[in-house]
Amino acid sequence: MGSKNKLKRFKENETFNNVVQPTRDELVNQEFALRGNWKKDFFKNDNPIVLELGCGKGEYTVALAELNPNKNFIGIDIKGARFWRGAKTAVENGLTNVGFLRTQIELITYVFAANEVDEIWITFPDPQIKYKRTKHRLTNKEFLARYKAILKPEGIMHLKTDSEFMHGYTLGLLHGAGHEVLYANHHVYRNEGSPKEVTEIQTFYEKQYLEQEKPITYIKFKIK
What is the pTM of this model? Predict the structure, then answer.
């Protein structure tokens, strides 16, 4: 994407009322007014809040919002020029239960208060296979602790990935730490039983993975 195109998207994001772009300082200095107030001040309803981490173009966030009108969805990514597409689609389709947040996932506890979030989706994250990259792996021990800090006690986590490494790593970690695995499937389109949100929503890249006959895996779990 050319820099002119990026700038145009950044500018357009600023006009969308479904896009929130706090500065790092605002978050770290605990000056972010929406923390603890997302339902009241942003969505203006009392419906459950569901996050998608590393939402990319926002396709999954928007599709989940369309499937579940009684839930609120927030796609989170540091790349605003990417989720511009999802934000624009949501505006064009009149979806009031979806928002996009531009921030780093490691700052998530500065964005949401304890018990504010009901569910978290992690869809097709970078598996960060190299050992020195494990600190960036979105299902590592440190990230799970961050999610637990903002989730309700019975909050649900979802991991959908084309990486068998990420699937295996996460399952091992969950079992080893005594977390509750509710459902695990290493090939969602071949084995029955996956929730419809897993098999009915396919992103652009997921369709490519399926054409390459890559298995798509899924885990649903609770952090104990």
Answer: 0.94
